[in-house]
Amino acid sequence: MWQNKHELIVVFLLFFLIPLLSGCWDSQEIEQRANVLALGVDKASEEERKKEDEISHLGKRIPIPDEEMIKVTAQIAIPGRIPLGPQQPGGSEKPVLVVEVVGHTLQDAMLNLQQEVADELFLGHLRIIVLSEEIARHGTARFNDFLRRNPEIRRTAALVVSKESAAKYMNLDPELERVPSLYLADMVDNLSAIGKFPPSFIGLFWSIFSSKGQEPYLPYLTVIEKTTIQLNGLAYFHGDKMVGKTNPLEIGIFMAVRGVGRGGYGAFITVPGKDESVLVRAVSRKTRTKVTLRNGRPHVSVKIQYESEIDEKESASIELSDSAILKKIEKEASKSTKKSIEKLIAKTQKSKSDIFGFGEHFRAKLPRYWDKHVKTKEKWDEIYQDITFDVSVDSHIHRVGMKSK
Amino acid sequence: MGDPKEITTIQATTILISTIIGVGVLPLPLFAVRAGETSAPFVTLTGIFLAAVGLFILAYLGMRHPQKTIITYSQDIIGKWLGRIFSIFVIAFFLILTSLAAREFGAVVVTGVLRETPLEVTVIVMLLLASISCRNNINVFSYIHNFYVPMILAPVLIVVAFSLKNANLLYLRPIFLGNDLRGMAAGMLTVSALFQGSFIITMIIPSMKSPKKALKASFWGILISGGLYLLIVIATVAIFGPEEIKQIFWPTLELARTTAVPGNILQRLDIIFLAVWVLAVFTTLFSSYYFTIHSLKELFQLKDHKMLSYFILPFVFFLAMLPQNILHMYEIIQYIGRAGLLITIMYPAFLLIIDFLRSWRRGENVAKQT
């Protein structure tokens, strides 16, 4: 039948190749995936705790007490309803499905969630994880293991702390973006791009949490009205537990000390000799941190150079027409910034939370001291409580805008 | 032996580069940081230095015996039987190295990307590819390496360049943390074990157009591949910090996952990185596989190596399946790697010394006669 051996080989080869056409084991259609876009983690309330079925463990055979159970609210994309282009007519349907589950740990909750969703959960598009303040104050370390171990999770996903329950954020319906979780994630990314918050993503949170001489920080959000979210401050941590929050303007102060170059916050500065004030906004900064030992005790000196701009003056009686008055404003600005910095450092010292990473400077620059007296993170937090510091701020106002007076 | 001598110096260099860069790039920062914390770049540098010494010894030996590989000239230097016994060790070692590289590749793919695909399938596909390619002669071998090198180097450099904006230079200090010298020495050995593929130079020299330039080729080969390894260690440590790296199996892969091309073009680079990394693994596997069968051929004085290509496949596959799990695998890799330095550095050094002594004695005899 076959004319020669060669032809036979070719036919055999073709048959041999057919199984390859079926694709690989991991092929999965996009509609059959439940893309989780956002997760909110809350503490489970008493009646919610009873909802858990025996999915990942039988009865009480789990060392985590029921009081520590969590409620996870997941936002899952509904296939076909996520707008892909700029124009998607007639879209009033909600593009996401919100599901609530309880569990003892994060993975426990995810297993429980899978039991309720027909399609396989996919976490590769997870953009943001919201932790309620209650959970954050209780400790975040127990979520890290699952998130680190799972190869689908992006290190660039955002992690935030919310004042209200995290579930509220999952049900939020912001007007600016069709997909609520994308708006939430953009909130964090874009605000750090315009200098309202230092770079913050889950990978960075982990790196800071692991390193010995610094403590992590996260954005702190609150809901205003029904659909608006506000960046309300910076949540700072001691170990994995949130211990406090700053007010929004202090984020700017924090960024200055931490050495984030991009400025974004403005503050009212009283014009010397008058009762009125002008709004001075930081454009960029340069920070130099020096660490020394004074009589064997750690001492930090921070030098910050501000490059600022006058955005607005409060009343017409202020004359902004000569450079002498700018000099005075510069001086006043430096003075008030210095005060706020000292206040903020003292505040974090009280709660043993070295968010500025001074400890890293000691570890890097004075390795002998570190090896002898510190060595561990816990020890550094103790020492941080009573380190001494001096701050010097040097403001320069080079621009006043388009107005000559 | 019938092949024309066509390999140029540049080709020899590219063979070395693409052979050295392999599966090792992924766990390299973890090995270095475990050994030296913030002095991980220093540990890496010493490891590279040690590997360079081994490579130069091999290149020099090859230049003294430009027609032969280590399998054949060892028989001249230390006697026929002793040379053969040592050669069996060398071949066995590269057989194990090939299987471990294939297994490590499979482990990464199964854990990181294709989670449903059986481990056996990823390993066997890679080994089949290598064994089919190994049926070519040594000139084709060098073309394949030459072709892939730019594709291996460029993406790694891109990932490193884009990631550096998140770097924190404090993580790299103090540069020399001298509190665990034994650990650092062990780390140095582990790092230099990642360069063992450079042994391939002994097989290339007889086919080079001008074997005298072997030393030059080795110098550039180790400079480029070592430079790239050092760059990867510096970048990962500067971005994650030593403490975080200790928690990650493959920091280099994690680096690609964290890095985004600005402007929302690509939000994570790991897919590109992995695609390229598959090439890098393939070239490494290809080299060690080729070396194994080529050496077998020379040991048994056969004419052709082609049929050996499929013959050893089941052995390699079987060895690759031996480690029980990923932790077990890395224990074996580190152990075998360090022990292998005896074969890849100490053995050539021993040969070189004997060779020197012999030629010195021969010179003396000649002097006596005249």
Strand residue content of chain B: under 5%
By secondary-structure content and strand pairing, the structural class of chain A works out as alpha/beta
Number of helices of chain A: 13
- The count of helical stretches of chain B stands at 16
Fraction of helical residues of chain B: over 70%
CATH superfamily of chain B: Amino acid/polyamine transporter I
**Terminal CA distance of chain B:** 37 Å
Query: Domains counted in the coordinates of chain B: how many?
Result: 1
Give the CA-based shape of chain B.
globular
The ordered string of helix (H) and strand (E) elements of chain B is HHHHHHHHHHHHHHHH
**Strand fraction of chain A:** 25-35%
What integer is the average pLDDT of chain B? 89
| Helix fraction bin of chain A | 25-40%
Largest binding interface between chains = A-B, 24 and 34 residues
As residue ranges, the low-confidence spans of chain B are none
List the helices and strands and how they pair.
The complex is a heterodimer of chains A (405) and B (370).
Chain A: H1 5-17, E1 33-43, H2 46-49, E2 70-77, E3 96-103, H3 106-114, E4 120-122, E5 128-132, H4 133-138, H5 141-149, E6 158-162, H6 166-171, H7 180-193, H8 202-210, E7 217-224, E8 228-238, E9 241-245, H9 248-258, E10 266-270, E11 277-294, E12 297-313, H10 323-350, H11 358-365, H12 367-374, H13 377-385, E13 388-399
Helix pairs in contact in A: 9-10, 11-12
Chain B: H1 9-20, H2 28-36, H3 40-64, H4 70-78, H5 80-113, H6 119-133, H7 138-163, H8 181-193, H9 201-204, H10 214-240, H11 242-245, H12 251-258, H13 270-299, H14 306-311, H15 313-320, H16 326-369
Helix pairs in contact in B: 1-7, 1-10, 1-13, 2-3, 2-8, 2-10, 3-8, 3-10, 3-16, 4-5, 4-16, 5-6, 5-13, 5-15, 5-16, 6-13, 6-15, 7-10, 7-13, 8-16, 12-13
